[in-house]
Amino acid sequence: MPTAHDRVPVESPSPRAGEPASGQPPVGPSAGSTLSRRRVVRVLGTVGAAVLVGVGGYRVFDTAAVNPGHGQAYEPWRHWRDDAGPMGAVAAALLAANPHNTQPWLFRVNATAIDVDVDPGRHIGSVDPYRREQHVGLGCALENLALACRARGLRPDIAVLPDGPDARRVAHVDLTPAPAQQDDRYEAIGHRHTNRGPYRALAIPAEALAELVDTAGLPGISVQWIVDPASMAVLSALLVDAAEAVVADESQSRDGFAWFRGTDDAIQSHRDGLTLDAQGLTPLTLGLAKLLPASTRSSGDAFWVEQTRTVHTATAAAYGVLTAASPDDRVTQLDTGRLLQRIHLTATARGIALQHMNQITERIDAERLAGQRATFSPRFAGVLPPGAKPLVAFRVGYPLRDARPSPRRSAATVTQRTPR
């Protein structure tokens, strides 16, 4: 999902070092960086073997600097097609977008039905106090599940919230044999990743944006495309302001940072959360960042804000905002997740990158929870049609480079087999 924002602790090259903001060749480190890529390269060239054999050598091992995306934490991306039955559908579901890669789902499976439950302990606390993003993420998983069932010759009949909006079970899926159906979205499941890197300076045609959207069976959810330069500039500024407000909020900063996995041991142990590998950095910048000492929450916050300003908003070709009349309704949130996943999968199939950017709604929720005067809500409303209330936002564009996968728990870990 909405993988929310990406606060990652990196005391490393400036986010702009080697990181072109508009598809143009890099022109060197940004003036404000405290440790530019050029300086790191110079230091490494001087210290050389001492760095690699000494402390640097430990960091190479500790962070998997020379072998990112390896190990059991990434096996689900390679084996999601292996099982032809309901367990294979679950294997596809757990590759869905979700906030901070918390993977807030559990499944109960037999030959004729699958139940999807929320895992209440997997949430981002004050970043998502009303669990909106959590349920959107569950909707994303539900969409992957439905696609994978159809591809396996199983017709999924989905009942959402069969026990009510506050129950742990968010969906019951009855399975009936049917002719197998496959489409581009199903084929894209294993290639879909949030792309946090720079996008090319190319506009996406309006018809191409429209073709990303399929609202069939999801009434009441709309997609607002923000494409004109003036509205994009307003929304870009609002995204930067919201990022700064999130990191200035001690609770939100702390709760987001709790999901960062800074070493390979942590990645392989937890198999969730945010990683350096998924931040869209160049291979050189990523490798150098991993050689540096592990950093702090404050430096990670600063990295995210700077990336938001110089990469995320600076290179977006367009923004999308999913809106509804009743954003607090749980069914609406699940349906929003299904639509968001459809958009992301279709975009992936067509070579368009997508990054979830939810800091504005996170600040709207924080102000609402604290009973503070609303500052972000009216500003966001200014770029949306009258009456349209936002649930999630994202940017799209043609990527400068491919995104790397995020770790995932295995299907066996998140699944309980049940009798028919």
Overview of this protein structure:
The structure is a single chain. Helices cover 40% and strands 13% of the residues. With 420 residues, it is an alpha+beta fold. The chain has a domain at 79-192 and 405-417: putative nitroreductase (tm1586), domain 2 (NADH Oxidase, 3-Layer(aba) Sandwich). Strands 3-4-2-1-9 form a five-stranded mixed sheet, covered by helices on one side. The chain has a four-stranded antiparallel sheet with strand order 5-6-8-7. A hairpin with a 3-residue loop joins strand 1 (105-109) and strand 2. Helix 5 (86-93) packs antiparallel against helix 6, helix 9 packs antiparallel against helix 13 and helix 9 (229-248) crosses helix 15 (359-370). The longest helix is centred in the middle third of the chain and has 20 residues, at 132-151. The radius of gyration is 21 Å and the shape is globular. Residues 8-59 have low confidence and may be disordered.
Q: Tell me the structural class.
A: alpha+beta
Strands of the largest sheet, in order across it? 3-4-2-1-9
Regarding quaternary structure, what we see is: single chain
**How many beta-strand elements?**
9
